[in-house]
Amino acid sequence: xxxxxxxxxxxxxxxxxxxxxxxxxxxxxxxxxxxxxxxxxxxxxxxxxxxxxxxxxxxxxxxxxxxxxxxxxxxxxxxxx
Length: 81
Prior knowledge:
Blueprint: H1 8-33, H2 39-44, H3 50-73
């Protein structure tokens, strides 16, 4: 075993947080691409890019936290084949 390796539960939580962040960002990209509720046009008028960055960060943070929560709640479940 390598001494610098993170504990198993930390890797578990980090994996699910990153997975949720990616899913949230992908969903937001779809919303921007199809201009859902005029969100794409609204962010297109923001020339600093700050609103887009904050929206991506907050959306990714929310989906990452939900993904971690679901993963933790499913830890005790036995798998049924």
